[in-house]
User: Fold this.
Amino acid sequence: MSAQTDTLPQSPPAPLAKSDGADRLRIVPARRTGQWTAAVAVLALLALVLNSVIRNDAFQWDVVADYFTTAAVLRGLGLTLWLTALVMVLGFALGTLLAVLRLSANRVLRSVGWGYVWLFRSTPILVQLLFWFNIGALYPQILGVRTVNLLGPVTVAVIGLTLHEAAYAAEVVRGGILSVERGQIEAAQSLGLGPWRRFHRIVLPQAMRSIVPPAGNMLIGTLKGTSIVSIIAVQDLLYSVQLVYHRTYQVIPLLLVATIWYAVVTSLLSIVQHYVERHYARGTAGAR
Amino acid sequence: MSTTTGTTDAMVEIRSVHKSFGSVEVLRGIDLSVRTGEVTVVLGPSGSGKSTLLRTINHLEKVDRGWISVDGTLVGYRRDGDKLYELPEREVLRRRTRIGFVFQNFNLFPHLTVLENLVEAPVAALGRPKKEAVAAAEKLLARVGLADRATAYSRQLSGGQQQRVAIARALALEPKLLLFDEPTSALDPELVGEVLDVIKDLALQGTTMIVVTHEIGFAREVADTVVFMDEGRIVEQGAPGDVLDRPAHERTRAFLSKVL
Assistant:
């Protein structure tokens, strides 16, 4: 038998006795040369970029530091933050309603949901904002009040961004609802749970797993996207630094102020998103 | 309000039920009575319509013709003269709480704990106080041998344990009728026994049930009536000894020779 294994190497080897055995063998991991080379190259490049950024006086880091926490900038940041929060909450509330309409058994409601999403997704947000800003030209009076008095720039910003946001939120929520197994709804129905209970207790919590990642994406997109309201003179973060540099002509350092603030806030939001995702992974393979 | 139909000791009455999916006729005129306290096992090749029949009983599928009553009440309809009016969903849900349904794939709610799965329907659908529902749920878990897993999520359980939880969840509504749709088909072979034991135990306590299954041994041991279906019709029905050992029809014989 052992002679045969020598002449026929493709046949399985005879089982080894424990003493000359597999226990003594050591596994040596493959060397990761490529990874080390890449690390060195990336660090070198990073050093070059940092050196040029720090040593180039045109960046005017001292001006950046001066304006980073001035009252005007912080007020702008504050407006950006609450505008983002409000648009997200209202947008997702309306979006969830639209998603339910689009999945409804009622054909008319389904068409309404579809039509809304089509309308607000197929035109640029910039155009929509300008349209709402000039709505007074179409309807000079609303309920007996002059439209320009009723709809200030901030109100227009909230309305315009929310209506646009809702169209995208609707698709995110709809995708989440569709990701929940049919059997879950049947189980809930066979237990006699009503439509509202089924939706908020059974379907939505499970849909959240697929909703949170794209919603986090949208939140970060919305935070940066609110900068578009600077064109209708709403004093958000971007508009606040613009006001300063129109006066002082220090364009680059003030744009850096805004840039750094946007990056700080989006980084914080990414961390929050991680924990929210973990919360909704309860009872699934991802929950550890 | 509701129309009482048929004989008094019949828990389920199915009369002339037809059902099509598109152009495929899945049920072609089903008549069946299930007496209170009896176990009816439905056998048949896949595609014979047995699961669809089970789903029409608690109105998860609507019938195209005929009617089904459970405990003397039509499930999805209200009868007025010669017409059956479809009930509003609220009313259908109320009537469904008297019928427990156990699915092939368990369909436990994965984001809720075992205990929450059991408490959900009694509280939300029947309006029971939470405390009472929790106490009842704990008793039910003990009954299916899972008292120690109340705080687990379904993913942390074996298939057999999940199905036992699903049975306990169905029992939590204290239904008058239990429907089992291939309760062991999704299980590893070594886990089938523990689920069948729970179902046998329920049978011994006089629970009325209809079980769609491929477990012939279970049918022989537990069933009062075995129903054999093929191509949307009931081919034959009777005591297990008759249908399983002395089948009258060629198709029953052919099916049994394949599965035994």
About this structure: Residues 125 and 164 of chain A are 7 Å apart (CA to CA). The two ends of chain A are 50 Å apart (CA to CA).
